[in-house]
Specification:
The chain is 57% helix and 11% strand. It has helices at 2-5, 12-39, 47-75, 83-92, 97-114, 131-159, 163-192, 198-215, 221-225, 256-266, 280-287, 313-325, 336-342, 345-361, 377-382; strands at 118-122, 125-128, 246-251, 271-276, 294-297, 306-307, 329-334, 365-370, 387-390. It has a 7-stranded parallel β-sheet with strand order 6-5-4-7-8-3-9, with helices on both faces. It has a two-stranded antiparallel ribbon with strand order 1-2.
Length: 408
């Protein structure tokens, strides 16, 4: 729970739902422990109390299943960032897979309280369940072990996150499905046949829950699951109307116009990625960017929302992943001079050539602010074929960087 609480994500609703699910899971574990203490007393003769405690535990289990299903929907649907958005999506797309999922969970919850299990012995515990109860609960657990992998794996294929995020997601899938199967096997099926393996089963279930805790150890795991989305979709006319499929070199000393163009585009429906020498927090606060991913270009940073300047392939991979996943993408690469200072100019120029091809193929836009005073005329000339020039220092140049002849 502490690992989830410190997660970095602009979607706080996503984090709160996952926290609620884990809290219910903790309650299920606590009730499991209390049941174990009860049934191992010297003379536990009250079978009704045993059934009651198991019903309490099962209730927490299925409530956990309902809430973790909601988390899966939120984590794989970027537009759902609030309670209102969640219920709006459920009503607008009714019926949907989650509604069916909740129906099965609720059916299992009802079966817990209307069934009439018989405790035949308590040491070892043996409980006879009706066949229909076993079928319904088997269907519920089967729904969980199919729903979680299907939604998560489909999302991973669509978003193509890094290997670490992918591995952690698989651990969460294993933790969720393994816990559900373990509860059905050790708490229902085996006791139905007078086989008491609850103690080793409990250890196994705790280990599976530990996988969820381990998978959320990184502060930005939830952020890694997010897919690109537009900062806003204002109905006003955008100030800047740039042709897609091109790289725009914005010649200025402070990068302000580049950020101005970037914000204008991402607030009018474009999905943005910002790679900058400024810290993520300062960019978010200054330009009110809450949904746009921001990567800090830093040689010493170790956070997941950062990228090292050397080798240049680090930046290339981040941008390539973004343009393949996003739609109407726009990338602000604020750190061209910093890249050159940590690599030779030819390798950074090669990077620019590769990026220009990627944005052209994906019909994206790359904004490249830099100060022309830092580079020689030859170095600027080498960029002319790949970029279009904009910005306050581009006065007297056409869009291809050539000097405009003076009018007589």
């Amino acid at each position: 729970m502490s690992a989830i609480a410190r997660q970095k994500t602009p979607n706080s609703f996503q984090k709160h739902v996952l926290l609620t699910a884990v809290l219910l899971l903790v309650c299920a574990i606590i009730s499991n422990v209390l049941i174990t203490i009860f049934v191992t007393q010297p003379n536990p003769t009250n079978g009704d109390a045993t059934v009651l405690t198991k019903r309490v535990q099962a209730t927490f289990d299925y409530l956990f299943g309902i809430v973790i299903g909601a988390f899966i929907v939120i984590a794989t649907t970027p537009s759902v960032d609030s309670r209102e958005a969640f219920f709006r999506r459920m009503t607008q797309e009714f019926p949907n897979s989650y509604v069916f999922y909740v129906f099965i969970m609720c059916l299992a919850l009802v079966s817990i309280f209307v069934s009439n299990p018989q405790v035949t012995t308590t040491v070892p515990i043996a409980i006879q369940f009706e066949p229909w109860f076993l079928v319904i609960n088997g269907l519920a657990v089967g729904t969980i072990i199919l729903y979680a992998p299907y939604r998560f794996i489909s999302h991973l294929k669509r978003t193509k996150p890094g290997s670490e995020i992918r591995q952690d997601t698989y651990l969460i899938i294993l933790g969720i499905t393994g816990f559900a199967v373990g509860e059905l096997l050790f708490e229902v099926v085996l006791p139905n046949f007078a086989v008491d393996l609850r103690s080793p089963g409990f250890i196994l279930e705790i280990a599976l829950v530990g996988l969820i805790a381990y998978a959320t150890r990184e502060k930005s795991f939830l952020l890694g699951l997010n897919v690109p989305e537009a900062e806003a979709n204002l109905m006003t006319k955008p100030t800047y109307n740039l042709e897609r499929g091109f790289t725009y070199a914005i010649l200025e000393r402070d990068g302000e116009q580049a950020f101005e163009v970037f914000k204008d585009l991402v607030t009018h429906g474009a999905q943005g990625l910002c790679i900058t020498r400024r810290t993520s927090k300062s960019v978010m606060n200054r330009y009110q960017l809450e949904r746009t991913p921001i990567l800090w270009l830093s040689r010493t940073a170790s956070e997941k929302n950062s990228v090292r300047p050397s080798p240049p392939e680090n930046v290339a991979m981040a941008i390539q992943h973004f343009v393949e996943v996003g739609q109407n993408g726009v990338i602000l690469f604020d750190g061209f001079e910093y890249m050159v200072s940590h690599n030779d100019f030819s390798s950074v120029l090669a990077l620019l050539h590769d990026l220009n091809e990627k944005v052209s193929l994906q019909d994206a836009i790359l904004l490249l602010p830099f100060d022309p005073a830092v580079f020689t005329e030859r170095e600027i000339a080498l960029n002319r074929r790949d970029v279009r020039f904009l910005g306050p220092l581009a006065a007297g140049l056409d869009e291809f960087g050539e000097k405009v002849p003076a009018t007589p």
